[in-house]
Amino acid sequence: MSNTQQQTAAPAPPRGAFLVFEGADRAGKSTQCGLLVEHLKAQGVPAELWRFPDRTTAIGKMIDAYLTSQAEIDDAAVHLLFSANRWEKSQELQRKLAAGTTLVVDRYAYSGVAFTAAKAKPGLDRQWCQAPDAGLPAPDAVFFLSLSTEAAAARGGYGEERYEKADFQKKVLEQFQSLRGPAWRMVDASQSVEAIQQQLREAAGAVVARCARGAPLGRLWEGGEAGGQPLAEISTNTAQH
Ligand code: Z5A
Ligand code: MG
After folding, report:
1. What is the rounded average pLDDT for all residues in the chain?
2. CB distance 169 to 150 below 8 Å
3. For 143-154, what is the mean pLDDT?
4. Is 3 a member of any domain?
5. Measured in angstroms, how far is the CA atom of residue 31 from the centroid of ligand 2?
6. Domain, as residue range, for 113
7. 192 within domain boundaries
């Protein structure tokens, strides 16, 4: 950027924060997302809980049929459906953020890349998997709930859906590791629900405050694999798993 551009660039307006939760199966993503949204609202922060896939749309219904094994869909085609499911919500997502609503989002494009790349199908390498999501809004923070497959199994075992098998979940976790970027915060999900929530509240609060002061919204996959801005001011549990 030239000096002239730097001098004339307008400051980013205040907005809501875009907070994504990713992680191992049964790591407690949905539990923690729900608790965080309630906490933010109680603090007077406008907040909504979102999740991907959004199974309520026409595309989401196709994805649901696939995940519950009611439909067979080609691996490349279903990958594009998961991405399309994010694109169809992206305008609304940006409107909500611009209006000051913080979005707590249960899974996003990182799950999309990790689950398809873990299939190790010819032609569906990580670069191919990332391409359809390029240009989507990038989260301000990605909270990755880290849990071993053994600890996940101890939480009652995996469910009935297509990907809920220990061997495959290990491959997914390896793929997630290679997607880590500057906006990621690793959270040890083997702790109690309350301990995890406390750390998340502190970390999320700092991001919400930063976005309320005005912060540009990044794009996937700019600014490192994860996109978004580095979260230097956040101190949280940074357990490396
Ligand atoms: N997928 C994809 O392929 N491509 C994409 O682009 C996207 C997704 C976006 C969607 O599953 C599937 O789609 C997913 C990835 C794929 N496939 N798999 N596998 P989902 O998100 O709908 O999955 P889910 O049913 O919500 O399961 P989950 O996300 O794996 O679980 P969780 O949300 O992490 O955990 P939880 O429901 O909060 O808790 C699980 C249990 O553990 C529950 O009994 C809790 O009470 C208990 N729990 C929670 N926290 C704790 C702690 N701290 N201690 C002890 N017990 C706990
Ligand atoms: Mg969940």
Report:
1. 91
2. no
3. 92
4. no
5. 7
6. 15-240
7. yes
